[in-house]
Fold this sequence. Notes:
Bound molecules: zinc ion
Number of helices: 4
Oligomer: single chain
Amino acid sequence: MKSGTMERFKKIRQERIANEYTHVCGNCHSKITPLKKNSGSFVIEIIVWVAALLLAKPTLGLSILIAFGYSVYRFTSAKTVCPVCGSENVLPRQSPAAQAILKEEDAK
Ligand SMILES: [Zn+2]
């Protein structure tokens, strides 16, 4: 393949990424698709579940309830973060605050 074709493909892909952003970072003002970041640790979750299953009988299933609670906590407390700077201050693209940032960035 000619290098010119490759360059064009690269450019098209970059443009597509730029157009597909769903959020704007309130911290670094990047146009982004935020990352989901769970609270707590996946390793701890595994340990909690293994312990819960081992202790299920002596605790009459209460340990499983606790493990389940931990999983729910991790799932529900997931944060959206900026992939560029790691800030949690991400704004939906359509929100007035995001629009204001975009306007400001365009004016530069
Ligand atoms: Zn950012």
